[in-house]
Amino acid sequence: MSINQLFGRGKRRLVLSSLALSGVVAIAGGMVGSILSAPSQAQTTTPGLSIFGGLDSEYRLRYRLDNNSPRSRNARYYLNVSRNRVTSPVSELEISYPSEFTDQFGGGRFSLDDIEVRLGTGRGGERVPLSEVVWLEDENRIEIYPETEIPEDTDFVVVMSNVRNPSRFGFHNFNLRMLTRTSRVGRQYVGTWQLRVSDR
Questions:
Q1: What mean pLDDT is reported for the chain?
Q2: I want to staple 173 with a disulfide (CB 3.0 to 4.6 A). Which of 27, 48, 102, 186 is the partner?
Q3: CA gap 114, 137 in Å, rounded
Q4: CA 66 to CA 69: how far, in whole Å?
Q5: Which runs of consecutive H residues, i.e. helices, occur in 45-183?
């Protein structure tokens, strides 16, 4: 049976208009879906690289940078750890960073001889003697071993001097893990420094 037989001419136009409108709505819905899903794809980044936010405030660690220009060969990073995060004596520190920081396009570089730990806040004060600093380049992390434990309830600063900054501006997440006297399963995640690198 034809549409003409089921419906009159006027009703036929109404049915065809409804079908056309449904098609437009379906297409528009698909476009809206694509548009809404686009930001999540655009914001997909590799671990450690952050464009905006993405980190709870309780895990954000304070820092300051000196000589923070692109390709600077004497940048200095002051990575602060507040006393309220040091709930037990600390025997090991581990700092991981994104591969983009040091890959062939980023060009960042660390100087192991110029990494130290200082007691205090800001740029720190008294130096903590270190027994060893290890840079595991293939794993994008640095391990720091103090000669004696950093006491609990103590502010301290990891100072990285003579850092070669990446060639391009970017936000880079440097993550801190610590081994303490009360750690049960190795080094525990403490927080993240969201470094605004090569900013000027």
A1: 80
A2: 48
A3: 16
A4: 9
A5: none
